[in-house]
Amino acid sequence: MKNIIEKRTIILYIILSILFIVVIGAIFNQIAKHYVISSYEGQLQSNGEYISDQLEMTSIEAFQHDLVFYHEQFNVDLFYESEVEEQLLHTFNTTELNVLRHLRGNLEYVGEIELIEDRLITTYQLEDGEFLTIATERLPLAALSTTIWWGVFFFSLFATVLLWSFGNRLYDSYVKPVIKATETSKELVDGNYQARIHDAPYGIAASLSQSINRLGRYLEYITSKYENQNSRLKTVVNNMESGALLINEKGVTRLVNESFLQQFSIEKTPFIGEIYYEVVEQDELNGVIQEAIFTETKQHQSIELKDGRFIEVFVAPIKDQESHQARGVVVVSHDITDLKRLERVRKDFVANVSHELRTPITSIQGFAETLLEDDSIDEDKQKQFLKIMKKESKRLNILVQDLLDLSVLEKDEYELKLSTFTASKLVNDIKAIVDQPAEEKSLNLVFNVEGDLQIHADYYRLYQLALNLISNSIQYTNEGGDITLTIEKDGDNVLIEVQDNGIGIAEKFHNRIFERFYRVDKARSRHSGGTGLGLSIVRHITEAHDGQIQIESREEEGTTIKVTLPQK
Asked: Residue ranges of the PAC domain (predicted)?
């Protein structure tokens, strides 16, 4: 049924062909009928003229004999009627009475030929009131029509078989391949580049199928190559640290990577295919893009975001290589927050170092000049000045040493000098240094250490770490306060904890106290002789050991700093 529906065009052509043959048959039937009638009319007219000339009424018996003679001789039926003598003579048999009745009622059509019940009939006037009607035998019109229609039927049947066979061949060889080629072309247009024509016709259809298959393979190859290139491009673009945005000449976004979306906190969907200023809510960035589009020149600007981050933006127009017309712009952005922070740290470092160095140097220089230029200064005053100069030079030496230690720790190629030692040895060495300053402030130092605890680390740096922590606690703990140093095993790690009940640190300063030269109370720090580098050194030593550092502190309640060092 499906094949018949698919071949409805052939069926339609067959039906139309049959109808055409039937019409031709009907016309041919009429032509044949006309030809037969015309032939019989000519014969009838010739025979009628001869018979009418030969007949002569002598007696009824003789006339009847003549009628029979001519009836047999010319194979016609004769009908004689005399209106004068009221005589009726004929050669018709009883089965043809209907014809006789019709003849008697139509004798006025003299000289004309009529077809009555498949017989041609004509009438001649012999004398006044005497008429002779001659009728041919029955014409073979029915048989002729039957023969013609049977011929038409068989010819139609033959034509149907022929057309169906030829149509199937034509359909399979040309129509079907064209339909399949059309369907395959539509699939290729819809993006199914694996569609193929698997039939193997011959001739032009075969060339068409092969061409479409080659086109499909080429499109599949080109698409695969494009998808691979596009995939590689997306992989490269999406894994770039720099943000990338491509905008066409109509201001529509065509390409964007994750870095750009993250840098400017933009929702990913929808973005591609949208007008850039409808999805980018950063006014400064939109202004730079608009300037680059209108002026067709490169633009560069550093943008500060609301969250405090800094983004450096480069916008360059894209021009056609042949026409040199602008085809859009490409935006490349870099997060320079860390660079800005480092720049700020550098500036602060230079400023702080300059300030920290200037104070002791100024004091030493001033007192030295006083001692050299003023001879009236008594011995006690001179000793006082010299003590101040010694103190300031000591402070200057400590500052320089801390700077040297910090610079060494910050080097990428710095390597720890690892060794294994006991925690008790580390504590004893620290205790020897901090006992005197603690006694001067009447501080209660407590050391909680497992005597046989083994530590694998850089001894000098760990000593420096613990000493800086305890020194800070001594400086910022009021007289009579408590300071506790605890060193213990914590799983696979060693925990070093320094706890005091000193002045404490407000929570808002927790994230910055490990920065170089950062002081919560600058006046008190300088008065105590601190350099502001101690906790920064502690952080660098902890990171060099792949450890972690935590601080817990509240104002007027004290501070606890925990350092966790892994043991490998």
From this structure: 296-348
Q: Which residues on adjacent β-strands are paired with residue 132?
A: 80, 124
Peptide bond into 177 cis (omega under 30): no
Say if residue 298 is exposed, middle or buried (CB neighbours under 10 Å; 0-12, 13-18, 19+).
exposed
C-alpha of 173 from chain center:
40
In the prediction, which pLDDT does 528 show? 47
Residue type present at position 217: R
CATH numbers and ranges of domains, the chain = 240-413 (3.30.450.20), 415-566 (3.30.565.10)
The predicted structure's pLDDT at residue 321: 73
Q: What is the pLDDT of residue 524?
A: 46
Residue type, 73: Q
Alpha-carbon distances of 519 from 396, 444, 470, 495, rounded to whole Å? 18, 25, 17, 26
pTM > 0.85: yes or no? no
Helix extents (H) in 190-297: 204-238, 258-263, 276-279, 283-295
Residue 268 confidence (pLDDT): 64
Give the pLDDT score at 525. 47
> Any idea of the CA torsion for 293, 295, 301, 307, to the nearest 10 degrees?
-40
Residue 448 bridge partners (DSSP) = 486
The pLDDT value recorded for residue 523 is: 45
Residue 469: Cβ-neighbour burial (10 angstroms; 0-12, 13-18, 19+): buried
Which amino acid is it at 436?
A: Q
Based on its alpha-carbon atoms, the radius of gyration of the chain, rounded to whole angstroms, reads 63
pLDDT (0 to 100) of residue 521? 56
pLDDT tens digit string along 507-552? 777 777 777 666 655 544 444 445 567 788 788 888 888 888 888 8
Non-local CB neighbours of 162 within 8 Å, separated by 6+ positions = none
| Core vs surface per residue 248-284: b (16+ CB within 10 A) or e | eeebebebbbebbbebbebeeeebeeeebbebbebee
